[in-house]
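User: Run a structure prediction on this.
Assistant: Running it now.
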Amino acid sequence: NSSGAAAGSTVAITNTFRINDGGHYIHNTPRVNAAIISQLSTAAGTELGIFEFDVPGFAGYTPSLSGRTFGSLILSAAAAGGPRTYTGSGAFNCTVRGNFTINTDVTFSISMSAMFIVQQDYNQSPSSTFDIQSAANPNTVQIAGDITNNGILTESSTGLPTIELNGTANQQISGTGSILNSITFLMNNAA
């Protein structure tokens, strides 16, 4: 979706938007996204369907996260041609049923008072930042798969967030990145 529309929704979906496993939708426009994301299918076979934000321009961008469910989710900065910031907030859980990836030059900053749930792997590229709490909320980021962190995981406020490993099998943690500031690291995995 590379709409150059100056205003309004770029794609109108009135029923269900299904991204099957192996499918890949790229939101490559600075236009609104809630009308699309609210229609994402959660049917079996869509867990690894990719929804990617690769928004052009240099201003920050806000994906609709509160109460939303994605298959796999990717945040990119290629269309911006340099650093891109994505921000999100909300009082309802955001669930990524597949993998969650933050690519190079992306800063992802959330101020959610609800959980951010990743049901498979979390991958973070070099020169990227995941600010898991930019407000005073004590939120939790749950990850059920492996973690590859080559960027910075941090918090920038007083919320005291938690990263919770909650898988049911062994979970690998790897990478050359860092975890900064006051983040609780919780292992809730009997394996």
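The chain is about 0% helix and 30% strand.
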